[in-house]
Automatic annotation (TrEMBL):
This is Ribosome-binding ATPase YchF. Belongs to the TRAFAC class OBG-HflX-like GTPase superfamily. OBG GTPase family. YchF/OLA1 subfamily. Residues 2-257 form the OBG-type G domain. ATP binds at residues 11-16. It comes from Siculibacillus lacustris. The lineage of its organism: Bacteria, Pseudomonadati, Pseudomonadota, Alphaproteobacteria, Hyphomicrobiales.
């Protein structure tokens, strides 16, 4: 599955957020079950109102959401790239995730120590990013030397890879994270193969004080401005509020949110933003037994989408009956969609669209 790593300096609210995420998911009863894999790893159902709607129309007995994994990666301090604190472990943990959720302290509280002695989320982001860039520089400098030698000796792979490596190196040397490189899709794939920490997509989470949860504050606005210049995303959330919400019943939650001027839990926005960040889309399968959401990377073709369910589906793929979400809902289900000619038969080259309702035909 897809993994988001939660990072940030100490005392910014990472654990509060992670616990709220996992507890809320647990409290969301049967529909969005949560399970703990390791103490610091949690799988969360991706909230999707479309799935509930499809299940109602399809009279499905069960709802199975698609999932995303969050990992609480503690241990970053200044000097991590030189092995300070839990530095090496920290960097290894980041290497394993698909995207980075970077929590920034945007709240003031004299009872909670700030490791740098002041509230400045933009500077904090730079501190963390600098450690990641130093680590990338270190590993890349060594690899570029080796690749140059190989390329000079005629090695084709090294020759192909070298331009991307050189570009990434120049980018890092200029003090910019590798994800800001403007690359062709092929080069982007090569960059991903280098497993650089700063090549991963980043979502900034502005952890604001409770009164600012609906509006944001001067700190979160500064982070949003920074994110814009980096092509990154930012979400404003109050971890303290989310922790409170996690304790409430559904009815209490609605009342509490309205009282705060909020429409939905910040965690729902965070989970969806994480999903977008990873370039993921959802397709659905529906039957009397269950309505289920499945995750694929944007651009996946029908056989690959089938393979998410079972490798046999991909191997023996014949075609996929496809109904667009809007048609399914407007017409009131599969039978009516078929009658109206809105159930298409799609073949191997079909690129699955977000919200498609699919039924696969395959050779067993
Ligand atoms: P971590 O070290 O980044 O995991 O931070 P924690 O989640 O352990 O939080 C550190 C301290 O900050 C704890 O005492 C939290 O209760 C407190 N804290 C976290 N989020 C907020 C918040 O939104 N507002 C306030 N006032 N305190 C918070």
């Amino acid at each position: 599955g897809f993994k988001c790593g939660i990072v940030g300096l100490p005392n910014v609210g990472k654990s509060t957020l992670f616990n709220a995420l996992t507890r809320t998911a647990a409290a969301q009863a049967a529909n969005y079950p949560f399970c703990t894999i390791e103490p610091n790893t949690g799988e969360v159902g991706v909230p999707d109102p479309r799935l509930d709607k499809i299940a109602t129309i399809g009279k499905s007995a069960q709802i199975v959401p698609t999932r995303i994994t969050f990992v609480d990666i503690a241990g970053l301090v200044r000097g991590a790239s030189k092995g300070e604190g839990l530095g090496n472990q920290f960097l290894a943990n980041i290497r394993e995730v698909d995207a980075v959720v970077h929590v920034l302290r945007c709240f003031q509280d004299d009872d909670v120590t700030h490791v740098e002695g002041r509230i400045d989320p933009v500077a904090d982001a730079e501190t963390v990013e600098t450690e990641l860039m130093l680590s990338d520089l270190d590993s890349l400098e060594r690899r570029v030397v080796a690749a140059r030698k190989k390329a000079a000796g005629g090695d084709r792979d090294a020759k192909a890879l070298l331009p991307v490596m050189e570009a990434a190196l120049a980018c890092l040397q200029a003090g910019r994270p590798a994800r800001t490189l403007d690359l062709s899709p092929e080069d982007r794939e090569m960059l991903a193969g280098l497993t650089l920490l700063t090549a991963k997509p980043v979502l900034y989470v502005c952890n604001v004080d409770e009164p600012s949860a609906a509006t944001g504050n001067e700190y979160s606005r500064a982070v949003e401005a920074m994110a814009k210049t980096q092509g990154a995303m930012a979400v404003t959330i109050s971890a303290a509020i989310e922790a409170e919400i996690a304790q409430l019943s559904d009815a209490e939650e609605i009342e509490f949110l309205e009282g705060m001027g909020l429409h939905e839990p910040g965690l729902d926005r965070l989970i969806r933003a994480g999903y977008d960040l990873l370039g993921l889309v959802t397709y659905f399968t529906v039957g009397p037994k269950e309505a289920r959401a499945w995750t694929i990377t944007r651009g996946t073709k029908a056989p690959g989408a089938a393979g998410v369910i079972h490798s046999d589906f991909e191997r023996g793929f014949i075609r996929a009956q496809t109904i667009a979400y809007d048609d399914y809902v407007a017409l009131g289900g599969e039978a009516a969609a078929k009658e109206a000619g809105k159930a298409r038969d799609e073949g191997k080259e079909y690129v699955v669209q977000d919200g498609d309702i699919l039924l696969f035909r395959f050779n067993a």
